[in-house]
C-alpha cells in the first residue's frame, strides 16, 4: 500500500491492491494489471476506483481518475463515525463501530486505507466472510454510505439532535 499527497488539492491516494491478470491467446498469455485505489481528503470525503491497463502506472492513473470522480461525503463526529453500521458486498461483510478518542483505526489493510482516506481517526472494524480486497473496499464504502449524522436523523424524525443524544 502506498500513500501520496498532492499539494494543490490535499487529496490522499492509497493503492489498496494491484493484481496481474492473464488472458490466454493463441500465442501464449497476455498480461495486464488492475489497481484498486482509494482517495480521500482526510476530512470526510472518500472515493474508490478500479483501473485496468497493460502497465501498472496507467492502471493506477485510471483508478485515481475514477476514484476522484466518485467521491462522496461521510458524516464524522469527533474523528469517529456517528453509529454502528454493517456494510455488505458479495460474500464480504464489514462491521464498523465508533470508538472513543485515542483508540486509533483498528482495521485490516483494505478497510484501514478507506478509513484513513476518509479522515476517520478512531474506529473499530471487523471483516466477516470473504477478505477479497475489492469486495472488502466496496463493503466498507457501502457501510459508510449508510451513515447518518444526528442532525439528519433529527430532521427525518422531526426532533432536535440534542433530544436524540439524551
Q: Into which percent range does the helicity of residues fall? A: 25-40%
User: How far do the termini sit from each other?
Assistant: 41 Å
Unreliable runs, pLDDT <50, ≥5 residues?
Answer: none
User: What is the residue-mean pLDDT, rounded to a whole number?
Assistant: 90
* Biggest sheet character: 5 strands, antiparallel
Output the CATH class name of the largest domain: Alpha Beta
User: What is the general shape?
Assistant: elongated
CATH topology of the largest domain: Ribosomal Protein S5, domain 2
Q: Element order, helices and strands?
A: EEEEHEEEEHEHHH
Task: Please characterize this protein's 3D structure.
InterPro entries: Ribosomal_Su5_D2-typ_SF, Ribosomal_uS5, Ribosomal_uS5_bac-type, Ribosomal_uS5_C, Ribosomal_uS5_N, Ribosomal_uS5_N_CS, Ribsml_uS5_D2-typ_fold_subgr. It comes from Desulfoglaeba alkanexedens ALDC. Part of the 30S ribosomal subunit. Contacts proteins S4 and S8. With S4 and S12 plays an important role in translational accuracy. By secondary structure, this protein is an alpha+beta fold. It folds into two domains: 3-72, Double Stranded RNA Binding Domain (2-Layer Sandwich); 74-165, Ribosomal Protein S5, domain 2 (2-Layer Sandwich), CATH 3.30.230. The protein contains five helices and nine strands, in the order ββββαββββαβααα. The chain has helices at 56-69, 109-118, 133-146, 150-157, 161-165, and strands at residues 3-5, 12-25, 28-40, 45-53, 72-73, 85-89, 92-98, 105-106, 123-129. The strands form two sheets. It has a five-stranded antiparallel beta sheet with strand order 1-2-3-4-5. Strands 6-7-9-8 form a four-stranded mixed beta sheet. The longest helix has 14 residues, at 56-69.
